[in-house]
Write a sequence for this structure.
């Protein structure tokens, strides 16, 4: 079993005994979600999606995000504006979910979740999410590259590199893609129910009141990504088949030779096999932005490595901790996953 970093406030060691019973008012949406299956793309299509990395501007995007992003600071505002402008230029509908909340240390602060939607008229959404704020450290500058500048950069890169493929999907009113950049994930003083995941708590409550949660097929939460050789597990039983899909995508990309600086036993039999997506379930309870949605029965796919990266909540979680090959590999996996989930016309 992987070792859990039990000291971390993000992680409690409560074992989930049973999967949540999912009940939705709108039976049709629930049925459509449950009946939804991936549409496997061809080897040529995998090739095409991989090659999109060649013209990627990931490094430029990352540079803009690798700054201090503590809520209420100039860096935080600049990054928020950058994400909003970036996606508006790609013709996504971008909305800010703005609110105020009481925090320790800083008192009342203004938070803004960013919600970008490919086709707002769609009935159902595959939602990718991460948080864009960085953790406050007194008298120190903490960048939080893996936490979560890299996941934000990955989501922006997916939107730009897949722009033409996604544009063709804009007229589909049944299923579409949504990107959520949560604000205020980090605690300011000590992780607890009132000091953490400010943005996720607000958005889940708001969408529940607006009866929008039933339109979420699945919330895919990206967190602590960017260091080499992450180990993922399936954390939730009701999304296991979609986790298995990621595993299959990784295998197919690897077999086709598209995983960069990555060792696989068939290629190099004596080398350690790298597999990001482990073929195992692991029902650890990790506190993160998905929790308010999980509690409201939204299906969750949590893409966070176990164990967490060594740099987690250390000042060394900056640009030097990031392995671009790993990031590009993961982006390729997500491109194929999105294409197969949304049944993109390749
Ligand atoms: Zn953190």
């Amino acid at each position: 079993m992987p070792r859990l970093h039990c000291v971390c406030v993000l992680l409690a060691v409560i074992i989930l005994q049973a999967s949540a019973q999912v009940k939705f008012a709108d039976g049709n949406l629930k049925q459509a979600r449950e009946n939804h299956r991936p549409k496997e793309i061809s080897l040529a299509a995998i090739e095409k999606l991989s090659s999109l990395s060649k013209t990627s501007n990931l490094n430029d995007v990352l540079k803009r995000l690798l700054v201090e992003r503590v809520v209420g600071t100039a860096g935080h505002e600049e990054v928020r504006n950058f994400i909003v402008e970036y996606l508006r230029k790609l013709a996504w509908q971008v909305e800010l979910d703005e609110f105020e909340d009481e925090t320790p240390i800083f008192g009342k602060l203004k938070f803004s979740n960013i919600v970008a939607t490919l086709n707002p008229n769609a009935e159902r959404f595959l939602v990718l999410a991460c948080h864009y704020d960085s953790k406050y450290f007194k008298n120190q500058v903490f960048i939080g590259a893996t936490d979560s500048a890299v996941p934000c950069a990955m989501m922006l890169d997916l939107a730009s590199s897949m722009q033409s493929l996604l544009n063709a999907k804009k007229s589909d009113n049944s299923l579409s893609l949504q990107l959520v950049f949560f604000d205020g994930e980090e605690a300011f003083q000590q992780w607890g129910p009132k000091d953490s995941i400010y943005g996720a708590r607000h958005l889940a409550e708001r969408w529940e009141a607006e009866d929008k949660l039933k339109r979420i097929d699945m919330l895919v939460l990206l967190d602590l990504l960017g260091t080499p050789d992450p180990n993922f597990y399936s954390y939730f039983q009701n999304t296991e088949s979609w986790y298995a899909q990621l595993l299959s995508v990784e295998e197919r990309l690897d077999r086709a030779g598209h995983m960069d600086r990555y060792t696989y036993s068939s290629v190099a039999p004596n080398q350690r096999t790298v597999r990001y997506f482990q073929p195992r379930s692991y029902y650890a309870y990790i506190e993160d932005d998905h929790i308010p949605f999980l509690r409201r029965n939204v299906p969750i796919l949590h893409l966070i490595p176990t164990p967490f990266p060594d740099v987690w909540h250390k000042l060394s979680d900056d640009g030097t901790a990031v392995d671009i090959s790993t990031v590009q590999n993961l982006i390729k996996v997500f491109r194929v996953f999105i294409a197969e989930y949304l049944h993109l016309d390749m």
Summary: Residues 135, 147, 186, 313 surround zinc ion (CB under 6 Å).
